[in-house]
Amino acid sequence: MADLTCDVAVIGAGTAGLAAERNARKHGASTLLIDPDFAGTTCATVGCMPSKLLIAAARAAHRARNTDLFGVRTGEVTVDGPAVLARLRQERDRFASGVRDSFDDLPEGVAVKARARFSGRNSLTLDDGRTVQAGAVVIATGSSPMVPEPYAALGDLALTNDSIFELDDLPESLAVIGGGVIGLELAQAMARLGVAVSLFDMGDRLAGVRCNKVHDALKGAMSQEMALHLGVEPEPSEEDGRVRIDWDGRHQSYDRVLVATGRPPNVSGLDLSATGLALDDKGMPDVAADTLQCGDSPIFMVGDANAARPVLHEASDEGGIAGRNAVAYPAVVPSRRKVSFTITYTEPPLVMIGQDPDDSAKIGEADYTNQGRATVDGENVGLARLYAAAPDGRLIGADLFCPGADHMGHLLTWAMEAGQTASDLLDRPFYHPTLEEGLKGALRDICGAVPLRVPGDQDPGLPPGV
User: Fold this and answer.
1) Average pLDDT score over residue span 348-366
2) Binding residue per annotation — 354?
């Protein structure tokens, strides 16, 4: 087989890699997109979509069990585990096939089905024996679940988010190791589907929440749905075909264990040492956040591979930035990054936006345990915390754990992108009764602290939270 040359080689055909190849080609470069499987994106196959399908089933079960609040009697609610998982896989496969179909739209010769490793700063060796000489290389190899050795020894009893969706039926009991985003989302979903769930984490923080008040609300809500064991060191073993977890002098057995201890970047097979890049103790190069360039080299690293902002929309943005800069190398151009924005799909959702406030920030708080629309819907739990810069009250960040946070989070992120202030938002119309209306108290807190004119003072008196 003939060796290959191109302007830009992209390693990895996930969300970030597809965006990088597309943007490089758009800017006139000859490109190669190198991937061993072309199986589809992490989001479609083992991430965003299958997890949300499981969460949707859990939501339906939870709502069906709680209709008595409204005087609606549904009788006993049963969950058909095989049917839940069959629908999940059917829809998951449909999403993934749509991504795979997009590979057919690539120009002839762009897709290269092979595994690549570096043999120099801009040269690659493929596992089929060919070599690639490129003007620049974009690394978009994604990430994979980390399974520490005590759990790896359990074989099929240990699940990850790459394997849990392939179960034929729901387990009766499940230990979840890791209280990060993946572990917490799947733990709550399984609990609402009738699985007895215990979540373990060596740390004392769930889902990386930065705000103590929001974390207290999250922890309180989750403790009502599962057993939480934070700040412990769980020790797994196999016992009579089940998983035994020992911690703090206690032990319990479970049908299966979900290992959600992180997804490190897929870099071990790339032979990055051949590039001459300075690597840290984890074998990772330094990556500039505004260019995605590794040092001053013609190598760029994007998406989950750089572990900086491991969410889909950021991966797409990073791929686009790196694809353009790979074409322009060495004349790379820094790009302004968007306001950081993450959603954890617990119920209610957990949202973190923008900056963690410093001592000079002005903070507004909205309590959703007594908010009008949340109470009407029987979802009155949690709170929202908004952060603004002095002296003008410009919004710079927010932490929310409350109903509708995934939608309100978008509105707040867009407002921050536009440089809007708390006063600007209070000037907008708020319909009654809505969840958005609950933010008015937090916005007024900020305006009162700056201080600024507070629109809406003429509003008629309403009960707290309405």
Assistant:
1) 96
2) no
Give domain 4-144+264-328's CATH architecture: 3-Layer(bba) Sandwich (3.50)
- Give yes or no for residue 418 having a pLDDT over 50: yes
Task: Provide the CATH topology of domain 149-259.
Answer: FAD/NAD(P)-binding domain (3.50.50)
Q: Tell whether residue 282 is among the known ligand binding residues.
A: no
Q: Is the pLDDT of residue 451 over 70?
A: no
Residues 11-38 pLDDT 10s: 999 999 999 999 999 999 999 999 999 9
Strand pairing report for 31-35 and 4-11: parallel
Plot region of 231 (φ>0 → left; ψ -120 to 50 → alpha; else → beta):
left
Q: Residue 459 has what pLDDT?
A: 44
Cβ neighbours, 10 Å, residue 89:
16
Cis peptide before 391 (omega within 30 of 0): yes
> Is 184 labelled a binding residue?
yes
**pLDDT at residue 2 above 90?**
no
Which pTM was predicted? 0.94
Over the stretch 123-157, which tens digit does the pLDDT of each residue have? 999 999 999 999 999 999 999 999 999 999 999 99
Of 389, 377, 396, 362, whose CA–CA distance to 435 is shortest?
A: 377
Residues 6 or more apart whose CB falls under 8 angstroms from that of 220 comprise none
Residue 76: the pLDDT is 94
| Residue spans in the chain of domains classed CATH 3.30.390.30 | 341-449
CA distances from 120 to 70, 131, 209, 277, 463 (A): 66, 11, 41, 10, 68
Q: Are 382 and 369 in contact, with CB atoms under 8 Å apart?
A: yes
Which residues are annotated as catalytic?
A: 432
**Residue 183 counted as an annotated binding residue:** yes
84 is in an annotated binding site: no
Query: Does 262 appear as a known binding residue?
Result: yes
Collect all residues with Cβ–Cβ distance below 8 Å to 331 and sequence separation of at least 6.
none
**Cβ atoms < 10 Å from Cβ of 466:** 16
| Superfamily of the domain at 341-449 | FAD/NAD-linked reductase, C-terminal dimerisation domain (3.30.390.30)
Task: Confirm or deny that 295 is annotated as ligand binding.
Answer: no
Q: What residues contact 196, with CB distance under 8 A and at least 6 apart?
A: 172, 173, 174, 254
